[in-house]
Amino acid sequence: MWHSTRLTRFIAFFRRARPRAMLAYKPRFLLAQLLVTIAGVPPLRYLAWWLGGGALHEIQAALDPEFYLAQLPAPGLRRGAATMPALHYLLVGKFLNLSPRPGFDPHAYRGRNPQIPKGCAPFLHYLRYAQAPDRTGDTSCRAAPRTALLLDHARGGGSSRCLELHAQRLHLQGWNIRLARCTAGGRPLLVLDAADGGAPRWFDPGSAATDLQEHLRRLGVRHIVVNHLIDLPPAAFEWLPRLAAALGAGYEVLLHDYYYVCPRVNLIDARGRYCAIAPTADCRACLAQAGSSTGVIDAADWRVRAHRFLAGAERVVAPSRDLAARLGPHLPQVSIEVLEPESDGLWPATRMPRLGAQEPLRLALIGALNVAKGYDIVAALARLAADRAAPLRFDLFGHSPDDARLRRCGVAVHGRYREADIDGLIGGSGAHAAFLPAIWPETWSFVQSIAFRHGLPVVAFDHGAIALRLRRRGQTTALPLNLSRDPPGLLRALLTLRQRYLVHAGGAC
Length: 509
Fold this sequence. Notes:
Blueprint: H1 6-17, H2 19-23, H3 25-39, H4 44-62, H5 65-70, H6 75-81, H7 85-93, H8 106-112, H9 122-129, E1 147-152, H10 158-172, E2 176-182, E3 190-192, E4 201-203, H11 209-219, E5 221-226, H12 236-247, E6 250-254, H13 280-290, H14 299-311, E7 315-318, H15 321-327, E8 336-338, E9 361-366, H16 375-387, E10 392-397, H17 403-408, E11 412-413, H18 422-427, E12 433-436, H19 446-453, E13 458-461, H20 464-472, E14 478-479, H21 487-501
Parallel strand pairs: 1-2, 1-5, 5-6, 6-7, 7-8, 9-10, 9-12, 10-11, 12-13, 13-14
Antiparallel strand pairs: 2-3, 3-4
Helix pairs in contact: 3-7, 4-7, 16-21
């Protein structure tokens, strides 16, 4: 009905009027606090329900108030939001990726449903259109004397895929698997997957550590796999080893980035450049200027605590030799085992593109772009290519911080995709090669595997696991990293590559 959209229009008006303030964490909380408090006063409560219409009623019926409010970082905020939790979720919670109930992961749900409009609450979409219960883990698992607890974040991506593959190996070894994810966007809570068709359980690791320990003991947890700690406070470096010791369990750590030497994880400094694991003095200055998701920390103290945490693990696993080699000198007491998530020997041979004299070189950009993955490079390069009428075309199969800017620069942005659709998208794009412009040393790249699967040459900087895999396949399309700061030089390198692909040029990839 018409009135059911009034609240959405009301929120949209404020977001247009104050875009910077509304996107900031604290101002949004303050605005939500005011509106929810006002709406909670009779008779305005009834007006709020009328304005909210069906959306507010649907969310109210499905939201778990205790769990939702527990994610808010301060008692005052929790008291204010408690007057109308569903309204608070619509006004602010969905923008901060707060989870409305245990077992629903907004990051994972949006990743599986890229067609959800921007600004739409994933939870509301789920309530209206999902055909099956949304679980965060394998609900077929039963408690057993030999259970492994897998601790993950709620951000999805390649690290969670690595964990899935690791879980399969553990399952084949006879382990019963239970998954726990840390909520993102508010106060961190641990959500354990449902088993035997029951409801997921959640715990506050700060105030309910004893309850969590007893619950895991009843489940028979004898092994803990730490996939990432990024959404937990730094105290997890000490808390997790104590938990494992209390359970009589060991723990292993899966490495995916550089979190254990720098909480900015990708080694891209405040200037947008690769820092090569800077000395602690430089790291302090960078963190003071650019910050991190963990808040204010001391770089030297961080590295000491992280080193101690890794040294106490039974096993530390990296997905590539490149990551192990970069971290090794900074973690002298840690033995890092390399376990690649995929075998490059399974992919077909790289095929040589054949271009006509007037045909542009079509470069596919696969996956989400951010600064570390080359967003600024692509924008500058595409703008320069357009200004010079260079025979290059860029297709982004994914999204970026500012898709509109990329389109203005001449990039065809196809948007988010489902994993099941990407092969069809790439196969029908007419791409001659894949361009992976990451400036951080990637530790593995599943989008590189997509390009390999299609036999596409991969153009990337000579940096990280991507370059290591290119050399292993005999490809010579790894470019010097200094070209990342030289758009004209990078453009010349790509045009030289195009010359190799012209029909009359011949040559090998």
